[in-house]
Amino acid sequence: MVFIPAERRTVVGSFWQNSLQRIEPGFEAEVILDAVPGHVFGGRVKQLLPAMREGEAQSGGTLISARMLAQFGRAAAVI
To answer: What mean pLDDT value characterizes the chain?
Structure first.
């Protein structure tokens, strides 16, 4: 038996901070996944998460485990 959730999916992309100058909420987005080769998923940018400069705050934990989000100089966008 297959269960298909009714709610929409949310994807968080990791981008270099200087790329955020060209990304705004409402812009069209395309997402490709290694797990689904040859398929391009469409969406729209919902929100840009606030970013801070490197060294502006010290990290106190390791809650974020995705390697892309842990790199310095990157910010996230919700698609």
So the answer is: 75
